[in-house]
């Protein structure tokens, strides 16, 4: 395994920790203003899946002796960088309304600037998640991890987006037991 790939995975892990710091700060802000947490049920699965992605990237490359293939690896690294850019564009655009959980402050208007101004792309942060989840393992040919993350992420995102949409419209049906990046993250 290339030492730089290990450093890349560690860097992404540190980025996730930075997200959690921002999320906790924003959660305190939202809850102090009457924010309501919606659908906590899927959040632990999301944490496990994202942690598993990072572990899978390293384990598959190490255990299956996956090579770095420049024709695949460099474009995938570019996609990882693009996903990070989109993710942090979402985080900074939503400001204090961004969170890793679905927390909605009653009366707060929906953000309609930055990546959220595109009516055809209602959840740009999840585009970043999907893109990174497929591309990060493929930087070093870990195709099983990329496939597994993608297949597990699809139903999780369906639940999360339903929960988030319901929370943002005030519908919050009992069946939307999950938690999200709330405008939370859209």
What's the CATH architecture?
Up-down Bundle
Q: What characterizes the major β-sheet? A: 2 strands, antiparallel
Radius of gyration: 17 Å
The figure for the number of domains is 1
Weakly predicted, low-confidence segments = 172-182
Distance between the termini: 36 Å
What helical percentage do the residues reach?
55-70%
Structural class estimated from helices and strands: mainly alpha
Spatial arrangement of strands, main beta sheet: 1-2
* Total number of beta strands: 2
- What integer is the average pLDDT? 91
Give the SSE order as H and E letters: HEHHEHH
How many helical stretches? 5
What is the percentage of strand-forming residues? under 5%
CATH class: Mainly Alpha
Shape, principal axes of CA atoms: elongated
- In CATH, the topology is named Four Helix Bundle (Hemerythrin (Met), subunit A)
């Amino acid at each position: 395994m290339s030492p730089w790939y290990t450093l890349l995975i560690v860097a992404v892990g540190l980025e996730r920790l930075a997200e959690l710091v921002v999320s906790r700060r924003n959660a305190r802000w939202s809850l102090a203003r009457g924010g309501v947490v919606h659908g906590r049920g899927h959040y632990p699965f999301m944490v496990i899946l994202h942690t598993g992605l990072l572990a899978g990237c390293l384990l598959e490359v190490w255990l299956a002796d996956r090579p770095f293939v420049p024709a695949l690896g460099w474009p995938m690294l570019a996609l990882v960088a693009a996903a990070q850019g989109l993710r942090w564009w979402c985080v900074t655009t939503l400001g204090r309304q961004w969170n890793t959980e679905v927390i909605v402050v009653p009366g707060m208007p929906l953000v309609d600037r930055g990546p959220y101004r595109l009516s055809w792309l209602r959840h740009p942060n999840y585009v970043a998640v999907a893109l990174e989840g497929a591309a990060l393992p493929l930087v070093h040919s870990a195709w099983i991890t990329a496939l597994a993350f993608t297949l597990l992420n699809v139903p999780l995102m369906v639940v999360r987006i339903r929960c988030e949409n319901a929370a943002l419209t005030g519908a919050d049906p009992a069946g939307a037991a999950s938690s999200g990046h709330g405008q939370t993250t859209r």
